[in-house]
Write a structure and sequence with these properties.
This protein is mainly α and 202 residues long. It folds into two domains: 9-55, Arc Repressor Mutant, subunit A; 62-200, Tetracycline Repressor, domain 2, CATH 1.10.357. The chain has ten helices and no strands. Helix 5 runs antiparallel to helix 10. The model has no long low-confidence stretch (mean pLDDT 93).
Amino acid sequence: MPSDRAPTRIQKKNRAAILEAALNVFSSHGFRGSTVDQIAAESGLSKPNLLYYFPSKEAIHTELLSGLLETWLAPLHDLDENGDPLEELLSYIRRKLQMSQELPRESRLFANELVQGAPRIHEALSQNLKALVDEKTTLLTKWMNQGKIARVHPYHLMFSIWALTQHYADFEVQVRAILGDEDPFEGAETFVDTLYRKLLTP
């Protein structure tokens, strides 16, 4: 948005409407299958008005991904070295599952970006995400060495947590097709808690 002045209330509202519309469009069609025209129509703004705020489809997508990465990494940042190791991990897993329930579009947006090779966030993955995961797997290894949690491969533990919890958002159509009217999250938390509690209890 070309201005050195603070955005007005209307400008903030329009910008938020564009990002909300883009989240719907990108999470449904992926980056390649989405167009500025679709996003403009979804937002209720004209295409020229949208382009006043964002110069391209890629600029909108990048903005969404930047905010999403911060949200996605917050639970991992919160893993507390001074807490009870097993409960810290189970709390992290529950928060990840909760995010799949409450932020399914965001999860699919992130998944679509990764499937495409992460062209817009590869640097963030290889630097910020890797540094954080390295830090937390070092903590996991410390807890394992202290006998506070069972010894498993720390990186593959993280991968399995992401894969299992995010499955409910990324493959929501498949999950709901199989379960029918049953709420998938009613049994999911109990299942993942039991699974990882048994896996990680020394």
